[in-house]
Amino acid sequence: MGVYAFAHAVFGGVVLGFTLENFDQALSGFYLNIFFRTLQFAAVGTALCLVVAMPAAYFLARKVTRYRALLVVLLIIPFWTSFLIRTLAWRTLLAADGPIKDALNFLHLHEGPLAVLDTQTAVRIGIVYGYLPLMALPLFVAFERVPAEVLEASKDLGASQLRTFLFVTIPLARAGIATGILLTFVPMMGEYVIPALLGGDRGILMSGLIANQYLQAQNYPVGSAMALLVLGVVGVYVFVLARMTRGLTAVAQ
Length: 253
What we know:
The protein is mainly alpha-helical. It has helices at 2-5, 21-26, 29-63, 68-76, 83-93, 99-106, 120-144, 148-156, 161-172, 174-189, 193-198, 206-215, 220-252; strands spanning 8-10, 13-15. It is 73% helix and 2% strand. The radius of gyration is 22 Å and the shape is globular.
């Protein structure tokens, strides 16, 4: 792929050589917009997963004593089913006349058909559902390992529960938070199934463009250049976050 990214695309094949035209095309016009959309998609999806997973993980780790193992199993049960089947199920749930529409109409929270499918909202719902366990499990482990004595000392010194959470629990759990962010952002940069099934024409991301270049246009050099750009962003992100994680772990210790 690295060799093809600098090669020349010709009718019916590839001529090896060295050119930067493939990267110029991958970073111009429509392709550049999709590249930035992919970055935004991964960043927003990771943030949504963090917002949803943090209170759930904290509740499981610090508030639940009985049935904790059962609740953790319920959290990871979706992984026992095919990712494709789980995503397809959301097409039925979010359909214009689907069960979610019926429930919202029954509760008088919405009237008429549900116009969510094939929108960015449907894609965000799908990614939060699909990647939530990858964010919640590292957070659960991190919150569980926070010493109870430290939290008790914070309360004894007059800190409220909110201040204790923000200035004691979060700093001690930052390594786990960084791990959860890493486990969700990286695969989201290459996510193909959820945007294609739930986003329709509005769900086109770099993964879809790369697939089109390889399978339809058969322009392997441009597709390889796009793939290298995505890998480059992921590589820089992993490198920076890994260094931050090592530093945070040292601080926590």
